[in-house]
Design brief:
Blueprint (H helix, E strand, L loop, with lengths): L8 E4 L6 E9 L3 H9 L9 E6 L5 E10 L10 E8 L1 H14 L6 E2 L4 H8 L5 H12 L3 H11 L2 H25 L7 H4 L2 H27 L1 E7 L5 H9 L17 E7 L2 E7 L9 H15 L3 E7 L6 H18 L5 E6 L15 E2 L8 H11 L14 H21 L6 H19 L6 H9 L5
Parallel strand pairs: 1-6, 7-9, 7-10, 10-11, 11-12
Antiparallel strand pairs: 1-2, 2-5, 3-4, 4-5, 8-9
Amino acid sequence: MLSHLDQPIAAIATAPGRGAVGIVRVSGPAVRAVVEGVCARALQPREATYLAFRDAQGAAIDQGLAIFFPAPHSYTGEDVLELQAHGGPVVLQLLLARCLEAGAAAGLRVAEPGEFTRRAFLNDKIDLAQAEAIADLIDASTETAARSASRSLAGEFSREIGVLRDALVNLRMLVEATLDFPEEEIDFLQKADAQGQLQRLQAQLARVLQRTQQGALLREGIKVVIAGQPNAGKSSLLNALAGAELAIVTPVAGTTRDVVSQAIQIEGVPLHVVDTAGLRDSDDVVERIGIARAWGQIEAADAVLFVHDLTRVGSDDEVEADVALARSVVARVGAQVPVIDVWNKADAVPDQTRAVREGVVLSAKTGAGLEALRQRLLLAVGWEASPEGVFIARERHVHALRRVETHLRQADRLLAQQAQALDLLAEELRLAQNALNEITGAFGADDLLGVIFSRFCIGK
């Protein structure tokens, strides 16, 4: 009996709904039975064949293209059949049902979410980072994110990790050889410049980590919350950033009572901008609910734009209350979340702009200063355009690389002690490699041993 992962699978591979073309994909040992039952003729590998898709009685369900990809030269590494029919939901469901019927004897079943890509990973067609890049390419919300995901899918990120891993394995090899063969009386570490290798590895890791952090920003996006007192111009700022009238703007304090959000992009970086109710003490039950939700959004933000009203700068009481509120926001979000002071309504009181020492001065009404705010925001969240280009990445990749960084830093300290701490040094390097392997899903117990015996004439 076939195991769950060995069973052939089938599914509609195109998005739900009506379209010009829809695709049904089949993978596994049932493909040839489906070809015989549905296509009723032999197919040449990797050639599109126009034909009628037949039901069990031989009647045509639809007409379209059939393409057969024999293993291992297919997306999943198994035999794969793609049937391209007209993109009507009913037609595709009939075609899928017919494929399942034709392949029933071989155990053909409906695929689980992501199972085609999972099989591609298990059959070594792609690694784990590339598998994730497929989903990221589909979900990309900006052109920059899509291009970065494409680079990761092509293996650029994985190659960077592979270079780090090879250098780390080589360093581990030297340390393990020194531990396991002390009778050789060869100082492997000094002769091979182990200290220099480790320092170069750390420098290379820093470059990869920087690009990975940028890729994570592209994928995850940045949640930016606009906060401040009522009537400071928060909703006007949201409208200005979005380039559309999304939030209601009136002179009445407390107009915004619920959360209003909009997805925008700055230089290809996706931002989820959230406008919130003005922060103040209120007896209005509805407004108090809105203020509570505002604080909840602030606490979950990646960055906060605290909007000040320049027309109130001349009032000591207003300034004192504004400063106290801004401090409360900073205290709530913590030191890790940037809070940018935005001084709005510069068009109304241009003389007051000279009194502002920190933050960004702008006019949400005229748009003056918006570009400076965009650049300040990108800088605050750590975005730096990389000349090599950015590959898409996830937070788990960033966390894994930071663990590698920590282990290498510890290894650097232990290497200075040499013979007194070589076993601990070896362990730190092993943990660093394990963290790297988590990124691509490459785990191998014998890789280090293979390198040692292939490069050193140790055998006696």
